[in-house]
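User: Please predict structures.

Assistant: First:
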Amino acid sequence: MNDKATPCWIYRSPRQSEMYLYLSEKDDFDRLPEALMVRFGRPEPVMELLLHTGRKLARADAGLVLQELAVRGFYLQMPPEIQADLYDAEA
């Protein structure tokens, strides 16, 4: 994969905390699966950036995001898994 910078638009889900959608074209929601859009909700714009393989992203691998953008036109970043610590409340 080349290291050319690719424009990328990032949107936040209003329905699921910490779920983000990366698009290769601004506001290009028509190519997304209907089930994804129902679960995601109305996308809220977060930022636009130039993405390249050396770019550090908080919770996604830039190379994988670029690959998905090239193949599918979008990348869905899921929330991190949250594991609750269970405890005995009566102890």
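Second:
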Amino acid sequence: MEREDGSVDNTQRAWLVRGAQYLLGAIAFVWVLRQIEWERAASLLSDVSLGTAAALVVVSAIGLLAALWMWHVLLDSVQDTHFRAAADTGLIVRFINNLLPSRLSGRAVAPYVVHNRTGMAYSGAVAVAGVHTGLYALLYGFVALVGLVLGAGRLSLALALVLVLSTALYAAAGTAVLLAGIHLGTVERIAGALETVASRVPIIGDRLSALTGKLPAFSAASADTFCALLGDPTAVLSYAAGFVLARLVAPGLRVWLVFEGLGIGFEPALFLPIYLVMAYSVTLLPLTPGGVGVTEATATAVFVALGVPETVVVPAVFIDRLLGTYLPALIGWYPSLRIDLSDLVKSPGPE
């Protein structure tokens, strides 16, 4: 009810805010939901055996748990954190990543999500988000680079240039974040250099340069936590193991299972997950929210160039993206309702 001074009762305001949160969350959920072609997904899945479909579900569940474990390893190294809170954090960040034009944009709000879901001080939350972003980007960039080397001479020049750009951006972002966390004095110089280089890229230069403002901003307290976390070999090695499971083993097995189910082999099978990482690296480029459409098209072009029939590549890539990206993003919609998404556009300061 409204008071005599014209103010709204705190209880009523709380309900209004909560309603706005759910409305915003519902709108975001519907947007992500509409990106999935459900009829096409059902049709493609009907082409594989029941045993293959069951294996795809199991592999996808293991991959998702490994991805959430990566968050838990880092969070638990800073303060005792229940896996549920770490899982909520990872799922919400995944959901946001599919609403914004680039993964860097999504990860820029991770400190707020960490603080909200775990109660961790912003200094620690920024450190965890920074280490996660830096290690992820460097590992992803390294694997993508290996894929470029393995695929040299088999990709078209235009496709190779796009993949080189996205791979370089991963490496640059990872290096910038890690150096920024270790050496506070380098932050402005790194951001300025990245912005200058990115702004010169044709067509998407403005959007690329804008990403430099999305890199985590470290305070002295967060830098101390950052260095301690990065210097913890158990945490770093556990994180790397989770990365291998989540980003190499699970996607590689998913696509291999579809290939085999449709009667097409891939040799050598060991290179399959590496090529996938390389092909999916375009998700970092600010082209479409979550890389929707562009990622599938690029991955299809990569595997067609590697000799896989397009009729097999298209369903394999679609199923992999559905199970590995879109469905986990939809799951992340539910825990996102517990936070005020409108605050994600703000840059929270240190406590």
